[in-house]
Amino acid sequence: CHLDFTEFDANRGSLIKECMAKGVERFIVPGISLAQSQQLIEFKAKYPQVHIAAGLHPYFLDEHKDA
Fold first, then answer.
1. What proportion of the chain, given as a percentage, has pLDDT over 90?
2. pTM of the model
3. Fewer CB within 10 Å, N- or C-terminus of the chain?
4. How would you classify residue 24: left for phi > 0, otherwise alpha for psi between -120 and 50, otherwise beta?
């Protein structure tokens, strides 16, 4: 799930706690771009129950550069 997206800024912490109270133990947050994947390292430091998966999302392929 993309818990790092701005749509979750207002209630991210409480949402994670609520999910964990219902039995969710871990979250996988996938990367969509190189820059965002790099930011996920800091995100994981703040939310240790989150695992990250660096990657390039096909929806955003036009934004990816070979360099």
1. 70
2. 0.78
3. C
4. beta
Q: Measured between alpha carbons, how far is 67 from 16 in angstroms, rounded to an integer?
A: 36
Residue 61 confidence (pLDDT) above 90? no
CA dihedral for 11, 13, 21, 49, sign (positive or negative): positive
Helices (H), 1-67: 12-21, 34-46
Cβ–Cβ contacts within 10 Å for residue 3, how many?
17
Distance between CA atoms of residues 17 and 37, nearest Å: 23
Q: What kind and span of H or E run contains 51? A: strand 50-53
- The residues pairing with 2 across neighbouring beta strands, listed in sequence order, are none
Task: Determine the 3-state secondary structure of 28 from DSSP.
Answer: strand
Q: If you search the block for the tokens 């990367």, which residue do you land on? A: 31
